[in-house]
Amino acid sequence: MRHAMRSLAVGLSLLAFSATAAEPGFLETVKRHTLLTQTVPENGDQNPYAVVVAPVSAGKVQKDDVLVTNFNNSGNLQGLGTTIVDYNPATKRLSLFASIPRHLPACPGGIGLTTAMTMLQSGWVIVGSLPSQDGTTATKGNGCLLILDAQGNVAGSLAGPSINGPWGNMAVVDHGSTATLFVSNTGFGVEAPGQPVVNKATVLRIELAIPAGQPPRMTGQTVIADGLGQRADKDVFVVGPTGLALGANGTLYASDAIGNRIIAIDNATTRTNSVGTGREVTSAGFLKRPLALATAPNGHLLAVNGLNGQVVEIDPADGHQLYAQWIDPNKAQSPPGAGDLFGIAMTSDGTGFYYVEDEINSLVLAH
Predict the structure, then answer these.
(1) Which of 46, 186, 229, 266 has the lowest tally of Cβ within 10 angstroms?
(2) Residue 149 has pLDDT above 70, yes or no
(3) Closest to 158 measured CA to CA, from 235, 90, 75, 215
(4) Distance between the two ends of the chain, CA-based, in angstroms?
(5) Please, which residues bridge with residue 354 across strands?
(6) pLDDT score at 23
């Protein structure tokens, strides 16, 4: 497969939220957007979702490689994608990291890989599945979190009554022999498109033990937020809390897509109960259905929008929305870039970020 490469000087506008918002920010340093590769593997899977930068070299993966999940199959049906691809920035080559069997007894409903993915320092990859039989939520299954070894082989799964439609990009605290995962669940009570909003989405904290040479095993789990809005959607499968990013003092930030806001879950790493729907950090403004989140080196949050092609920079200390930058100005959608953005991940040196453009099945570097 040949992969086109292009570099766009950012004539893409950087918008300040107000006159007082024109303070130094991370997005001011982002000047170029370089298309790195198409993300379609040989089986034709489409719709890139999760973006994860490898923290270590292990098995097939080299440190700083970029792993990307595909949510759709070759027929462009949602919830049927089964592949993870691996882009190596040094060689500029794309390879197949994992092709997961469509049906696994330990993962209810089949496989449809979501934005929920991480790679641990121990080399294990954990990825979420929110599957469908026909591309709609009318036939969705509860899904699971799959555990893959560094060769891309399925080594186990995490499932149970607290896991239903693991959806949003994960936040992780990784100590090597133990790890803590944060994942949102958007499957509780979701049925066919057209139903009203269901306030049952959750954010779940999962504690893992990682014995040497053995797959991670769950040692504890706590629902730390619940009652968040979610609904089935014919165009994007499901709308619900998607972005998760850790900040200072154990605070977890989450994007509440239905509420068009960013919330904070205080003491997320240690709390023993649910905070409910969280503490609002910011809402509306530049936010247009915020999806995946990342934390920039200056401590600000970057949120990609689902309803236009912008990324928004937010100071979580006071909720100030500093800037929005058009990173996908594709006028084939209205507004430009609507429905195109999903995953985001900082580069390992913190000077830029990776993101995917769904409409052209591509991985892009902002730098």
Answers:
(1) 266
(2) yes
(3) 215
(4) 25
(5) 345, 365
(6) 61
The answer to whether 244 and 278 are in contact (CB under 8 A) is no
30 and 323 in contact (C-beta within 8 Å)?
A: no
Q: Find tokens 């991940």 and name the residue.
A: 345
The Cα–Cα gap between 268 and 270 comes to 6
174, HSE (Cβ side, Cα atoms, 13 Å): 17
DSSP 318-346: TTEEEEEEES---TTSSSTTTT-EEEEEE
| pLDDT over threshold 50, residue 3 | no
Predicted pLDDT at 8: 41
Strands 171-174 and 198-209: unpaired
Does residue 357 surpass a pLDDT of 50?
yes
Rounded Cα distance between 180 and 206, Å, is 6
Q: Enumerate the β-bridge partners of residue 126.
A: 118, 147
Question: Could you tell me the two tokens for 34?
Answer: 């370089």
What is the chain's mean pLDDT, rounded?
A: 94
Give the whole-angstrom CA distance, residue 289 versus residue 262. 10
Neighbours of 168 (CB within 10 A): 28
Helices (H), 87-128: none
CATH 3.40.630.30 for domain 6-366:
no
Q: Where do the domains of the chain lie?
A: 6-366
The pTM score is 0.95
Which of 64, 69, 66, 78 minimizes the C-alpha distance to 40? Answer: 69
Compute the Cα dihedral for 311, 313, 316, 320 and give only its sign: negative
CB of 120 within 8 A of CB of 216? yes
**Amino acid sitting at position 172:** V
Q: How far apart are CA 32 and CA 90, in angstroms?
A: 18
Rounded distance between C-alpha atoms, residue 166 and residue 185, angstroms? 4
**Please, is 74 exposed, middle or buried when counting C-beta atoms within 10 Å of its C-beta (0-12, 13-18, 19+)?**
middle
- The answer for residues whose C-beta is within 8 angstroms of residue 194's C-beta and 6 or more apart is 232, 234
In the 8-state DSSP scheme, what is residue 275? -
**What digits encode the pLDDT tens for the residues 251-278?**
999 999 999 999 999 999 999 999 999 9
